[in-house]
Amino acid sequence: MKLAIEEALAPLVGLPLWSAGRTLDLEWFHFGGRRKVDSRGGQEIEVGDYAIHTQCSWRIAGPHGIAVAFRDRFAPRGNPDEIPEDFDCNQPAVTLCDERMEALFGQQGASLVVEGVVVGECGCFSLVLKGGFSLDIFPDDSSNREHWRLFRPRIEQPHFVVTGSGIEE
Question: Is the CB of residue 97 less than 8 Å from the CB of residue 22?
Fold first, then answer.
């Protein structure tokens, strides 16, 4: 499994990580060049040459600690210790995760280039990024559900999918 993951992620080396976003419990990351495509809803969106969609724990670590992580989506922008009664983490642009992603991509921009891949056990991996950063993805439950996938958006090719029971063929 480790070798298959290394081979699947190898094309990301040398490409910039330039965007991230979320919907519910799915976080996406875009790499490489940018291109415009029509979304499933018919709106024009910008996608990367490659994308990773994850439905497990992840973080972007930097030289000074964790820059942003999965659980940041459960805290509001501003003061994460003061959660308003009407806070809904499923709304766009209202979470600490959204705030930190905006800051990260605003400050680092195109400098988050993938320099290497380190694969661990059970489907976890780290993309080593320029400047002392890393994108770490690590399955965090024992279910057989999908943990993450690598694919080329709007290109008809098989997706590389890692589940709790291994690589989905």
Answer: yes
